[in-house]
Amino acid sequence: MAVITAGRLENGGAAVRLHNLRRTFDDLVVINRLTLDIRAGEFLAILGPSGCGKSTLLRLIARLVEPTTGTVEVTPADLKFHTAYVFQDAHLLPWRTVLENTVLPLELMGTDTAESAARARAALAEVGLAEAEVRYPAQLSGGMRMRVSLARALVTQPKLLLLDEPFAALDEITRFRLDIRLRELWLERGMTVIFVTHSITEAAFLADRAVVLTRKGGGIKMDRRLALPEIRRNELRASPEFGREMEALLAAMEEES
Amino acid sequence: MRKILGRVVPAAIPLVVFMVGMEWLVRVGWIKAFLVPPPSAVFNTLLRDWRELFTALAKTSAGALAGFALSATGGIAIGVFLSSSRAIQRAFYPYAVFFQTVPIIAVAPLLVIWFGYGMRTVVASAFIVSIFPVIANTLSGLLSTDPALRDLFRLYGASNSATLWKLRFPAALPQILTGLRIAGGLAVIGAIVGEFIGGQGLGSVVDVARTQQRTDKVFAAVLLASALGLALFGFINLLSRVLLRRWHASEQD
Prior knowledge:
The complex is a heterodimer.
Chain A: H1 6-11, E1 15-25, E2 28-38, E3 43-47, H2 54-61, E4 69-75, E5 83-86, H3 98-109, H4 113-126, H5 142-154, E6 160-164, H6 172-189, E7 192-197, H7 200-206, E8 209-213, E9 220-225, H8 240-256
Chain B: H1 2-27, H2 39-48, H3 50-82, H4 86-101, H5 104-115, H6 119-143, H7 147-155, H8 160-198, H9 202-211, H10 215-244
């Protein structure tokens, strides 16, 4: 059973409250009257078929787009630089080394340089890339690039981590490894994680709560707490309880596709 | 060494074949020597008139390089300015296109009226013909920044100038260098046109040699002008290699 421990709450993830959220692009309604409460420290997977507005929802939460109507409320409110965003592809700056890429958010926020290099090294160590800091993105594999991208997101000690199908382009073994690492990082840091995906397996393996969006209009089809252990290993993928969660999510997804 | 040979030899073969062929065609009389001089005659002229020719080359080089330097700095600056907003682009880009469409040979006499006979006219002519590709490539490079990375910079509250210097400009660099490569060749053409009308250098050597029916000298001067263009091109390639070697696919082996 997923329990949000007291320690993680103290660490302070951010709570996100979406109220009656609506976003249109010209005549196209992407998100329609969506209301959703995400607790501090929660690991939420947002599932839905392609084109159901998952990415838009994430961009709305990150304040990269403004809602047409409705509100996005993030608490604590002074959360300006405590949101991190991981994209579908690594999107590194190819002219910068791994370390320079990881330092970038701190640099843009104007944090002290000596300290930021140390923090970037620590973030790289957390994703297992301490050895690669002087290499350039062109010299890395796809999985390594994605890990740099994750380190870049973690370096600011975010309270809210938003991920937009980040491992979709990777091979399965690499993806499984990163899934496990991401889950561990969440457990260690107590940040709120919102993970958008179209992979039912990934959602079930990673999250404590899964929300399935409707195909059209971006409403909520299903909102489910997953009855799975806190610490997750690959063995879980073959277990009956994992199968049950998959089945439930699959049923909701099938009705929407 | 092997690598250098591997690059030079394939390019040298057509040249040698062409030179030997021309020499032969002229010697057997299929081509009249006063229309197209045999390569050996051009080579002799290069040796005999080297002082005059190389002085002219130095002047043309100075004019072309100055014009190129102006269009590189000016073109990049204008490209950056134009990229700052859609409204600015709509207002000014049509006038930048003017540089592309202006028939340089027609305005060159005007340049002489404005700048007088000499270097300034040559530089102005080189500048006018070479600036547009720099502007166009800089602008297009700056406008094609990865939207995800722009989002990332916004997320961390990056200022416009940080976004420009840390993201948009370096991302545009490969395209800017492409613009400079094109501009290098055009600057040499512009300098020669300027010298035709109102300057001294390879352009005026060509002009004078033409009136004297000295096709060998015309060819010698043209050869040096091409060599200048090639040298400039090579320099920009070298620059591109140094700047992009570590990260851009175009400069990786």
